[in-house]
Amino acid sequence: MSRLDRLPITRDDVPWLGAALAAGLLAVAIYLATNPYPAYGAGLYLRIADAIAAGGYAPPGQISGYTAEGVPFAYPPLQFYLLAVLLDLGAGPVALARFLPSLGVLAALVPVYLLARDYAGSRPAGAAAGVAVALNPQLLQWHVSAGGLVRAFAFCYALTAIYAGYHVFDGESWRAVAVGALAFGATVLTHPTYSLFVVVTYLLLWGTRDRSGAGLARGAAVGVGGAVVVSPWLGWVTSTHGIDVLAGAAGTHGGIGGGAATIGVSATLLPLLGAAYLLYARRNWFLAGWAAAAELLFAQPRFAFTVGSVVAGVAAVDVARRLPSLDGSVSLPGTGAVERREVAAAACLLLASVAGGGYLAHEMTLPSDPSTPEFLDEEDTEAMAWAAAETPPDATFVVLGDAAEWVPALADRTILIGPWGVEWYGPDAYETQLETFEALSQCDGVDCVEHELAGVGADPDYVYLPKGAYTVRGQPEVTFGSLDRSFAASPDWERAYENDGVVVYRAVE
Fold it and tell me: Main subcellular localization, coarse class (predicted)?
């Protein structure tokens, strides 16, 4: 009987699953303690949710505020509707971006634990995989930060679909098919790249664990069930925007197959080494193929690290089972006899949590904060509140630095330059906006800014300049006042607003 035909979690799982969740809580606590504002950006996501709520929950055709034309709403909608409900209930957009992703991060640890546990037949293996996911800076970077409003939940849905898929092909469970179809549908309705991750994993599960016609039928049933779940949204998108909008976006953000460029230059080789060991020691073709696929097919290393976490848990247990010194049991006060392997696993998990938590605390408190840089601070929110109250509703802005994404969401004003949402217009439009935004954000004077604006025909009413430290696509930058001084000296601009971190100039008519 498949584990999905009964309760997948029992009392015996509690301490091991608890260890994984404790590591996740530690990571979340460190992030929240070191980030008074959300890391990275989610302004477009919240702008979309606000538009959904304002339109009575009908899907909006366009999202205003991002470039003069706005951008199409062709994103998978599930999380945006959840955000719209929360905004309607009174949640603040900045608070949502800071706190809600943590729930997705913690929820995702449950299917990670279950998958590694069932695959290795070992609860310590599940706990090890969960701890590895919880404390990986690369995974946290994209899931606990503001973008985790979508990505953290896509991660959870995808891993749930994959856990169900293991039982679809290993236990002939039709209940697993139902769970897999719902989870796969939720993944497709949340994020396309995570959906591809599920599809690739299912193909590997079928090819390495059950190549029978019945196995193919069960796997196809998951796909068909997922398609039924997503068909209303897909029908609306294609009828509203046409198929071209989906094809255009597919050529941006690295696409599938972009991982090959990273081989040999990143720590994602470590999962391949673990998979190579399992292939040699256990002829484990699935994990070897899964690690290779995650490395080669996805430009985003978070997928390779996710697979690597499961590989690490399974490999660690396999090595421990081969050590004669860990045979037998020991007596512990209040618990009776406990297997030495479980004691060793618990000790390793504790050490990993302490070491991983210490490393995260160190990295997240560095001045550059490579894992969770904040795009927004108190001065930015004050400046955007001023823009919302003191500028005309049709005013247009050009914003230097990553705070730009938040202006439409918090100030309800249009930014003329920025890549957010422009991927739906295709790679050329996206690259033009991205390159212009990056070049503008690194300008050191008014002449540079005006040159870049002229290159794309942008004529803003206001230019929003950071003072001191800021980020550009997450990378730290510093302005030492040259921007402010050059704009102040220009007859074409006048200072309209200033605080300790931001200065805004108005175009002189």
Answer: membrane
